[in-house]
Specification:
Alpha-Beta Plaits, 2 domains, disordered N terminus, alpha+beta
């Protein structure tokens, strides 16, 4: 065969294939963790977790219909809409997670899988389900996807208004759902258990993400400042500061770009940096953000 006739553009890079295989495996693991954490710990404990999982749990309590069915009913239409607003890869892996985790919940009930029923201290299922579901969410967020539900809604809202704090949107919706659970269980303990679970959930998720802040600072040493500037401003919707620098070893001139972005944009930012192999970048936690962070739509990126 003549090697000249081979279209090299059609050949998938081994590194890319490996990355996608790992991503699929992580999605499957996260789905299994989700189904197990909800079915084994949450459902028999009579409390509703935050987000769509909580809504599905409450509806299961009221109707005796498997929560996995309600998760599919809520997530699939939501993700179909998200397809037109959010990153396609994000939506694809979120769909895989949502469908697989929901189906697993249905299967666990169908086969009569055992559940943990707390006889004395109900805080145990709240703590352990918080750990499991937090790890699940951290794994999905780590490679730029989500567990569906509230995260997708918040993502679409921020897509249209990049200046809104997405973490605040998620928190408000989650606490509202937990408050409404009182009307289902008529037990204040149910709300308290949900709050405990959410606290543990956030700690577990943050430990996987390796970051507990709402923002991170990137410092980039590069010879392609204009290209990276366009990526930051037009793709990430953030500003940056450009500083001239000189390499101490080479004594050659470089540009130093300083930019502060939202925590959920870390995977997207690092993907952009891969386009510039001669660029050095490091990032760190930001303990607080004041001033020019484009909280309002008419703010100018600086």
């Amino acid at each position: 065969m003549d090697n000249k006739n081979i279209n090299t553009k059609s050949i998938v890079k081994p590194d890319g294939v490996k990355k996608e295989i790992v991503t699929v495996l992580i999605t499957v693991i996260a789905s299994v963790l989700s189904a197990f954490g909800l079915y084994f710990f949450v459902y028999p404990a009579n409390f509703a977790p935050a987000g769509i999982d909580g809504v599905a749990t409450m509806l299961q309590e009221l109707t005796s219909i498997n929560a996995g069915i309600f998760s599919l009913i809520f997530n699939i239409p939501l993700l179909l809409v998200a397809w037109f607003f959010l990153n396609k890869r994000y939506v694809i892996y979120t769909v895989i997670f949502s469908v697989l985790s929901s189906v697993l919940i249905i299967v666990l009930e169908a086969v009569g899988f055992p559940q943990y029923v707390a006889t004395t201290d109900r805080i145990i299922p709240a703590v352990f389900s918080g750990i499991i579901l937090g790890v699940r969410t951290g794994l999905m967020l780590k490679f730029g996807a989500s567990t569906g539900g509230v995260d997708v809604v918040a993502g679409m809202v921020q897509r249209k208004a990049q200046y809104i704090n997405i973490e605040r949107i998620i928190s408000v919706i989650c606490y509202l759902i937990m408050g409404l659970s009182y009307l289902v269980y008529w037990d204040l303990n149910s709300i308290l258990l949900a709050i405990v679970q959410m606290f543990v959930f956030e700690k577990a998720s943050a430990s996987i993400m390796k970051d507990t802040r709402n923002a991170v600072e990137f410092k980039i040493v590069t010879r392609n400042p204009e290209a990276i500037r366009n990526e930051i401003i037009f793709n990430l919707k953030h500003g940056a500061t450009l500083v001239d620098g000189v390499g101490m070893y080479t004594n050659e001139g470089n540009a130093i770009i300083i930019s502060v972005v939202n925590i959920r944009q870390i995977p997207e930012f690092l993907e952009i940096m891969k386009k510039y192999p001669d660029t050095f970048v490091y990032y760190s936690d930001v303990t607080g953000v004041k001033g020019n962070f484009r909280w309002k739509k008419d703010d100018i990126a600086k």
